[in-house]
Hints:
The protein is α+β, with helices and mostly antiparallel strands. The protein is built from 10 helices and 10 strands.
Amino acid sequence: MRIAFNRPTMKIPLYCDSIGYDWNQPPIHRLNGYYAYHWLQTESGMGMGMVNLDHQHILLKRNQGILCRPRVPHEYHPTGSEPWKVSFLSFDGTIANDMVHFLKLNQFLLVQAVSPELTAFIPQTFNQFKPNDNLSLPDQSIQIYKFIMLLKQNELLNTKQFQSSTITSPILAYISNHFAEPISNQDLSKVTSYSVTYQNRVFKRLFKMTPLEYLNQYRMKKAKELLLTNAALEVHEVGIKVGFHDTSHFIDQFKKFYQTTPSHFRKYI
């Protein structure tokens, strides 16, 4: 599905030149580049591209994308046995240069991991770009602004310093201080001020597990320490101290983690 427009006659902050998704991308060779900013993202299959035609090959796999400045020479073509299906958005406008400066865009911006929100943007807003009249242009301009902000958010999502300072570090600190208490995803969301879905995705990308999986692992390690260093504590007391008020559940989780029961661990380890 694809929509292409003529340039608007009125000056507009941001306007859409073309937009599409689920598009079988043919080979493209632009010696003089494209006259607008152009975003291209792989939905399935793969494509090979070159920017500036300097033989710097760029492979665009699924959920990867590239944003090119206007007039930057480039070419791309499908590669592999599958069709190369893409989504794309080209745009320009009176504030376009200032907006992409916010993205630190040089000649092109390669995005190695596109967020689900950014992936969903074009299919979800496609119908809003169908009207081709002056009354629709302001709303379409707002949508393109949102798209650029999603690109910036995507950059932050993939920045480990941002992830650590705003999401993972507060979660780790909270678990360390409150692991003996009931902890839910909603509790952690209040700590980070981000949605559960967003914070869990960031955390899992960095630690290869969800915050609650990390919490369970942390509790198991603390349980092992208590079993080895506090012989006077009963098994159920150890469970309570690490956040388990159901002894059977504590024993079950400990056995899954260490392949033995707490009592057997204390006796033979």
